[in-house]
């Protein structure tokens, strides 16, 4: 079974190790997608040491390093949330030859324009040396599989306008609606 627009190399989920804690008790897809030469799967507690450099790389890419680095307690809390059944926060990792090579973090939330919860792809990262190999695309597709299993009608994300490499991929797998994002500290 494939989602519309899904890459033909993605197969139906193969195993079940995903927590069942999504809006309205909808079960997530049992997810373990094996692709040559990598696998997309949920992380385990044992993945922390391999996940951490990816997380740090993601944050550095977006300027959060040195004086602007995330406080350690935020990183620790983020990791713990992936395994907390009361949290709507999820993670996937891409693994190649026993090494983590990518991450995706996503969450479900209510929307003012949909009855169902929507899925926000919060973080997506692969090291620069591994980009262009299909890892990011596979992670996006895997999040879409999880969103569909949860009954979510939309997956969306944002990126910085200078993320040219990411935007090349995003323009192939999604539609840019032209919105600009504003934020403000209260």
Question: Which labels suit this protein?
Answer:
single chain; 186 residues; alpha+beta; Aminopeptidase; six-stranded mixed sheet; 4 helices; 6 strands; globular; disordered N terminus
Précis, in short:
This protein has helices at residues 48-61, 72-81, 135-149, 164-173; strands at 33-35, 38-41, 89-96, 99-109, 118-125, 155-156. It is of the alpha+beta class. It has a six-stranded mixed beta sheet with strand order 1-2-3-4-5-6, with helices on both faces.
Account of the protein in words:
The chain is α+β, with helices and mostly antiparallel strands and 186 residues long. The chain has one domain (23-173): Gcn5-related N-acetyltransferase (GNAT) (Aminopeptidase, 3-Layer(aba) Sandwich). 26% of the residues lie in helices and 19% in strands. It has a six-stranded mixed beta sheet, sandwiched between helices. The longest helix is centred in the last third of the chain and has 15 residues, at 135-149. The termini are far apart.
Q: Quick one: CATH superfamily?
A: Gcn5-related N-acetyltransferase (GNAT)
Distance between the termini: 45 Å
**The CATH top-level class label:** Alpha Beta
Write out the strand line-up for the largest beta sheet, numbering strands in chain order.
Answer: 1-2-3-4-5-6
Total number of helices = 4
Could you give the topology of this structure?
Elements lengths: L32 E3 L2 E4 L6 H14 L10 H10 L7 E8 L2 E11 L8 E8 L9 H15 L5 E2 L7 H10 L13
């Amino acid at each position: 079974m494939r989602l519309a627009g899904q890459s033909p190399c993605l197969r139906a989920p193969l195993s079940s190790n995903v927590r069942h804690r999504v809006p309205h008790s909808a079960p997530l897809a049992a997810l373990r997608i094996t692709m040559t030469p990598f696998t997309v799967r949920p992380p385990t507690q044992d993945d922390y040491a391999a996940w951490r450099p990816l997380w740090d790389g993601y944050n550095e890419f977006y300027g959060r390093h040195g004086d602007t680095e995330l406080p350690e307690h935020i990183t620790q809390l983020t990791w713990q949330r992936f395994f907390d059944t009361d949290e709507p926060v999820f993670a996937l990792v891409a693994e190649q030859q026993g090494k983590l090579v990518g991450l995706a973090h996503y969450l479900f939330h209510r929307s003012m324009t949909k009855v169902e919860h929507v899925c926000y792809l919060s973080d997506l990262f692969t090291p620069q040396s591994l980009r262009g190999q299909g890892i990011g695309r596979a992670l996006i597709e895997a999040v879409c599989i999880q969103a569909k299993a949860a009954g979510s009608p939309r997956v969306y994300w944002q990126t910085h306008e200078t993320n040219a490499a990411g935007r090349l991929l995003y323009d192939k797998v999604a539609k840019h609606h032209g919105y600009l994002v504003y934020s403000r500290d209260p």
